[in-house]
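Run folding on both entries below.
>entry_1
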Amino acid sequence: MASDPMVSPDTVKEPGAEKRVAGYTVVLPPAWRKIPVRHGTDKAIKEIVDEAFANLNRGDIPRDKLTPYRMELGRQLTEAARRARQQGGTELYLPVELEHGTVIAASFVVSEGLLGDVEDPRQVAACMAAEDEAASPIEIDGAVGVRTERVAPPDPAEGVEYGSRRVDYVLSVPGDPNRWLVIAFSALSAGDPDDKFAKLLVDLFDAIISTFRWTRS
């Protein structure tokens, strides 16, 4: 289970007022891990790499055979965290089991944004859904929002050679209509964003989001 802070340090609650949202939790599959991308990134990546190779490095495989794979996994995770940071993310989630020396090309990034002077989050969510035929209104743990699914083209400038399947959840933070959480998922699969494996990864992501719950302080 992953839990993350969202609360502002100057928050003051009135006596008897409803507790303010302080973060969220999600239940991750066994092979998935969280990497904070603002602080503690290097430490988290080192722990993930150490864990990934702990069961392999028992004397049966020479260290010099494992070292290139360790370095490549660390490089991939560092690059994924860099991209997430550039996107304004606060946390990156991805599978860390190796397939032929590489990580499965799927991940999701959590970020937070502000919308000014929102009076009715439901109305904002309805407008978002109406403006995009790929979007549908949702409600998760009391939060209204939209879910959007689409296929993104290759982006050679970013080193992305293939198209990807993208799913975005945009959720209004309960009790604070100006704060919105964005959970952005991407799956490269084997190069075809419409293949069966890419769609299975989307199903897995939706199952993860079904466990999403707010935490309060």
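>entry_2
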Amino acid sequence: MSASQASQRRLTVADLEARKGGEPIVCLTAYSASVARLLDPHVDLVLVGDSLGMVLYGLETTLAVDLDTMIRHGQAVMRGSRQACVVVDMPFGSYQASPAKAFTAAARVMAETGCAAVKLEGGIDMAETVAFLVARGVPVMGHVGLMPQSVNTLGGYRAQGKAEAEAKKITADARAIAQAGAFSLVLEGVMEPLARQITEELPIPTIGIGASVACDGQVLVTDDLLGLFADFTPKFVKRYADLGSVVSGAAAGFATDVRSRAFPGPEHCFGVKAED
């Protein structure tokens, strides 16, 4: 069922998993209650992404985002949403050390935010951790291909799967995460034919970002979609609005009015009688 069909309850991990091969899953990021409230009627899945490190905090990568920050933003998004399934990113360093430490961190996220699932990056190397979490009641969304938390080892933000060896590794990673029990898998920056092939093969939904229209769903960073994040625009982003220029124009208008003393007017002040 779609978000519009489930207005009386929040979509679950099981609902999304059942969408494999059916109606595409709509996913956007949110980091605040106000944005989550605006997105909630229109999307199936809200991702509290560690992209907030770049979008909100001006960091060059996502690597400096910590667990407490993800939990605070996850709490805000849960307060602002009512029907979308909410998934929270596990930040760098919170799950790689061992399955047991990953569970401790994921359990905190689940308990303190009330979200439906966590997302973590990695393939074969993280399959044991995914299985460990799922066996202990933590639903997991996987993420392979271009993995922002591994940007230093991947050699930067570039498309993945061009070379045959790289394509084989991504395929093996995707299979391992699905077999470990993840309920869905993000394919980021993966060459279109490869993303299509993986989607056809896996029994769980794939969520594409810079991948293929054949994926079982699509995700974008909301600030990219709205034209609010202008540091760079990835090839795979389609801008549905240019709110950056709207915000800048509004700020310029406010500045002009303040400097000319046109604002505030009598109608904006207390204790001033309105003119006849």
